[in-house]
From TrEMBL:
One of its GO terms (biological process) is proteolysis. It is an enzyme of class 3 (hydrolase). The record marks R90 as: Transition state stabilizer. Pfam families: Peptidase_M15 (PF01427). CDD domains: D-Ala-D-Ala_dipeptidase_Aad. The active site is at E182 (proton donor/acceptor). This is D-alanyl-D-alanine dipeptidase.
Amino acid sequence: MNLPLLRFVTLLFLSLASEVTSQDTLVNLKDLSTEFNYEIRYATPNNFIGETLYDCAECLLRPEVAEALLQANQYFCEKGYRIKIYDCYRPLDVQKKMWAKVPRATYVGNPYGNGSVHNKGAAIDITLEMLDGCYVEMGSDYDYFGKEAHIDNYNFSKEILANRKLLFEGMRQFGFNTIRTEWWHFSYQKNWSYKTLNTPLPCEQ
């Protein structure tokens, strides 16, 4: 093999290796910012299954998704709010446990089909709170499976509708899309480009 061709093959291999590695990259949001609040429900039994599903309360995301979320939180902070996080990356094995308990694709992504965007590290479940930690009413609790959680349900007070509008419009500005049945769920718009992962959360043993 001549030298120019060898260099080309080497560069091609390195490029492909870098692409494969980047497809699996997740970052811990706590390493990037201290300006979020957290209530990772699946690290507790306070969730729709009633069982602890995560061994630790960590928020992992794709680097691009984390950067967009940082920008969104800065936007809300300038308005007197901050993002409170309920869930981020979710290993596929946890998705399977959820599906075994609640096999309803309206609310739980089928891990044997397309799964959840959470399994790609490209979705977040969040709400807003005031900068001093005061509660912001959104019309239902997190992971409430019913019409009160639907974003096309307008049978709420002006205050709740205004809170939802602030959350939805703010997140959409930074590349996050809503889904109809969960006011708290936001998928990054480029989620289709990411692999589904089953990487365990980085919990200390």
